Fold this sequence. Notes:
This protein has 364 residues and is an alpha+beta fold.
Amino acid sequence: MSEDVQLSSVTMEFGKFRAVDNVDVTIRAGEFFSFLGPSGCGKTTILRMISGFNDPTAGAIHIGGRDMRGIGPNQRPTALIFQNLALFPLMPVWENIAFGLEVRGVSRETRRRRADELLRLVDLPDAADKRVSQLSGGQKQRVAIARALAVEPKVMLLDEPLSALDLKLRQHMRSELRAIQKRTNVTFVYITHDQGEALAMSDRVGIMSQGVLQQVGTPQEIYNAPANGFVASFVGENNRFAGQVVSVAGEAARFDTTAGTFATRLGPGIGQGASAKVYVRPEHSTLEAQPVEGMNSVPVTVQEVAFEGNFIHVHAHDTHGAVHMVQLPNDPSRPPPAVGARRHLTFAPEHAVVLADAAVRGRA
Ligand SMILES: Nc1ncnc2c1ncn2[C@@H]1O[C@H](COP(=O)(O)OP(=O)(O)OP(=O)(O)O)[C@@H](O)[C@H]1O
């Protein structure tokens, strides 16, 4: 069983500082939802408000339709997991998992049975009688998840739980966490500043900047149709050109920059005359010997060529000194240009989108 979490105009102020500004989002029952954003953007504050450790200074939180105002952390249908797992190192694994049940007066036999079930769920069927201190980092993480699930939360809140693990284990645990979430169907609210983690695991992602929720969407929507320049730059790479929209025809526009006039698409809220930036992904950019009919192009000089295995990153600067990146497939029959070569950075109108900067505090 899982429940939805509804945030309605949720705001949190610490004195005069607004850490979370008018956040509106409904996290669906059974969904894996991540809040993604840089350090200090308000992610932890949101999680603390959902779990009941802080009350919003304005707005409301409903879980499963129930207003959470005045309901303390222990009375909420939530469980919180964070980086510091707070397991008991010398206690057997199964007792760690069953700890919350013991507090609730569940018999030893039932506790043991439930712990064994949960250990199978997190793929540690033989660990029940080991001590926590004998486990690896990833195994401890699974025990912490099993312990949180033991009290049958409707909503699991996870605060960067993988950040203490090394890269390989972190990547492995991504798919583990996702699998556990699907098996239990509990609503997962996950916070992270790691875009790879958020994109790989989540059904939907909410991108935060400076307390403001910038966009909510599937990983594909966030990457392929960013709502503004902050989202486009925070998730993945982009080449950017500042300028002005000089004409508009439907969703297409002409955009004037110091590097040239481009045919582009228009992002949300951008119209005729707007000063903004055009964004183009490196994988949608190529380097051509000559300008190509119907495409945008900017004369550049190749500055650096980095072989990355499955692809090649080429950095090239334009006549104003701005550096742009092109991602080329690793194709031995088409070697990349040499450093110093002059080329035309080329991109299609449909891959160039004019976006506003981020939505900012107090104006969301
Ligand atoms: N109790 C508090 N009193 C005053 N300011 C606070 C308090 N808690 C958080 N803040 C401020 O609110 C902002 C958001 O903090 P929060 O911990 O939610 O960010 P975060 O996105 O989780 O960052 P990180 O990824 O670094 O943990 C920060 O500027 C922080 O300094």
